Amino acid sequence: MTPELLEWADVIFVMERSHRNKLAKKFRRYLKGQRVIVLGIPDEYAYMDSGLIQLFERLVPPHLGMAAKRKM
Length: 72
Hints:
mainly alpha; two-stranded parallel sheet
């Protein structure tokens, strides 16, 4: 994560509440109204685990539609 990526983003997804808390603590000054969405996925998956990808594919899209509507 970088400050530039955070400033660019409209919506930020994290897996757990602890991730949101760490993000807010470390990058608070770069979070300027972006929505931070906690997906409620335990951080116990390996990188690119097929089960994790399936969860992302199911849980992320509904939030993207909501983000697009807010920009209008």
